[in-house]
Structure formats: C-alpha cells, structure tokens
Design goal:
alpha/beta, Rossmann fold, 2 domains, five-stranded parallel β-sheet, 13 helices, 7 strands, 61% helix
Length: 342
C-alpha cells in the first residue's frame, strides 16, 4: 500500500510556486508595462498560493476519482480545479496591488491558458518521480519480518497427495488477450476432473475482481499481480492440487519469479501462441479496439510488451492446431508429470 507523504506535497508546492510566480511576474509586467508592479504581484502571491496549493494537494489525495490507475484524466481535472483557485487568487491580488480591477481581470484571464499548460506538465513530471512515496506499513513490515516464524504442519504435502491419488502441479497458460488461454484451460480442467484429478482453476479476470482488485496495469503492478497469484498457487500445490492457471504473464522476469515461487518441478508452461492479428480479429470484448483508440492504456500487445516464452513445455498455435488436439497434447504432458512422480 503506497502512502503520499506531506513532504512530497510541500516539495510539489515549492516547485510549482517557482514556476507559477515567474509566469505571473512576466504576465503582469507585460500587461501593465511596469516591471516593478509585476514583481510586486508575483511576490505577493507566493505566500497565498503556497498555502492554497498545499491545501489543494491534501484535498485531492482524499478524492478517489482516477486514482487507482492514476490516469491523465485525474491530472487534467486537478489542473482545472487548481486553475480556478489560482486564477481567482491572482485576480484579487492584481486588483489590490494595481488598484485597477481591469488589470486584475486581464492578468487572471491570460494566465488561465499559460498556467493550465504549465500545471499539467508539472503534474506529469511529478508523476514520474517517486520522491515522498513510500509503503504505508514500512515500519510495521520490518517488525513483522523479525517476528515471523513459519508454522510446521503435521500433515505434509506428500500425505495430501497420497490421499488424492496424484501429485500436485501447476499448468500455466500464457498468451495474448484473446489467444484462447481460458478456453483451453477450461477444457483441460474438465478432462482432468472427469478422470478423478483434484483440480482448481485460476483466471486473470476472476483474480482481478477479488484478491487483486486493487492492482492496476502498470509494469510494477502487473508484476505484483503475478507474484500474488504465484503465492496462491503455491498454497494449492501444498494442498496436493493440480492448478490450471490462465494469465497473460507478458514478461520473462515475472515468469521466472513465478517458477521460483511454485518450484520448477511443479510447473508446466503452455504458451498459447496466437498472432496479434488473430487476437484482434476475435476481440469479443472490444479491448484491442479500445486500446488502439487510446481508451485503454498499457494493453499487452499494443502499448505494452509481450515477451514470448521460449522455455515453456508446450506451444500451441490455435490458428493451425484444432482445439481437441491441443487439449490432448497438454493432457499427455500433465498426466505423465502427475503420475510418474508418485
């Protein structure tokens, strides 16, 4: 859980105030023709706007709109709300200092355009910096790590497996959205279940509506999504279950982490190698269409990478391999693994 500290808001207030004040000074100078008056108006707003900006930041941290994935829309709305507050402050200050309400109105109106652009760029720049962002429970985590002692269970994985009559395994389907991962995964589980194998399915959309509903789609968040799923899978492995998992899993590093957590000896990788063109043609949810139009950001295959697995046990090309044949190929490998290890 990330926490945005007060010092980040203070630092943002200072950097923005430097930019905003310089803009106000030059605009006031240009409109009044008096550099001294421009300097007076610019310096006067330093104190008022520092306070107003800080309060504006603290208010927005409590507003959830666009917060989960930190979209550009959130930055745009923050830009608009701050501009309304800032422009009113500038207009009043320019009026008071110049004694002329027309000057106040002119300075306020002109700076709407310049500061809207500058503030938006300022927001985007700060979004790329981690300063003042930390794990909320950092201190608690340190204390917890020092006090954790894993429980030793009386019943072992081997005993659970013996009761079920087969060894545990994770069959991990990776591929682009629309490649056919879930379809194959469901059919494989059905066949195994009919043969008396204890199975459980994990699927990307289902996980994101529950356990991982608070995770977005940035590169870091995708990695955390896979890490959590791997830990859940590890628990199922310990229970002696055959896990059928269907996730895009686009990055090699995340797939390596996954194998380390569940154990390579418990892992069968299935690469559902369907071309991007075919996935877009299928696109029953219009996800690719939305990604192409910019409505969806960080979409794998469009503006986020998919690193094809080169070390998976099975590769299925759904454009040339019939579904029934693909299922049988997977079952041969899976059954050999869960039986030969008895």
């Amino acid at each position: 859980m990330k926490e945005v500290s007060h010092k980040r808001h203070i630092a943002k207030a200072i950097t923005w105030r430097c930019i905003g004040t310089l803009d106000t000074i030059f605009l006031s100078w240009f409109i009044t023709g008096d550099p001294f008056m421009g300097l007076q108006i610019g310096l006067a707003e330093v104190l008022t706007k520092m306070l107003l900006y800080y309060l504006h930041e603290r208010l927005w941290i409590r507003i959830n709109l666009g917060k989960q994935a930190i979209s550009q829309w959130r930055h745009i709305l923050k830009t608009i709300s701050w501009r309304l507050v800032g422009t009113l402050d500038t207009m009043l200050l320019a009026w008071i200092i110049s004694g002329n309400p027309v000057v106040g109105l002119k300075v306020g109106m002109v700076e709407v355009v310049t500061k809207m652009l500058l503030y938006y760029l300022h927001e985007r720049a700060w979004y790329k910096m981690d300063y003042g962002i930390k794990d909320r429970n950092t201190k608690e985590n340190i204390l917890t790590k020092n006090s954790i002692s894993p429980q030793e269970y009386t019943v072992s994985q081997e005993q659970r497996s013996a009761l079920k009559g087969h060894k545990p395994l994770v069959v991990w389907f990776s591929g682009l959205s629309g490649s056919g991962k879930s379809t194959l995964a469901n059919l494989v589980e059905k066949k195994l279940f009919e043969k008396g194998i204890h199975t459980y399915s994990l699927d990307g959309d289902n996980i994101r509506t529950g356990l991982n509903k608070n995770i977005g789609f940035t590169s870091e968040e995708r990695s955390e999504n896979i890490r959590r799923i791997a830990e859940v899978t590890k628990l199922f492995i310990d229970s002696g279950t055959v896990v059928i998992a269907a996730f895009i899993t686009p990055l090699k590093a995340d797939r390596e982490t996954l194998k380390q957590i569940v154990g390579e000896h418990n892992f069968v990788g299935v690469f559902v190698n369907t071309s991007l063109e075919e996935c877009e043609r299928r696109d029953v949810k219009d996800l690719y269409k939305k990604a192409r139009s910019g409505e969806i950001k960080n979409f794998t295959g469009i503006d986020a990478p998919y690193e094809k697995p080169v070390d998976f046990d099975i590769t299925i090309n759904t454009e040339s391999c019939p579904t029934e044949e693909a299922v049988e190929r997977i079952l041969v490998v899976v059954e050999r693994r869960i039986i030969s290890r008895k």
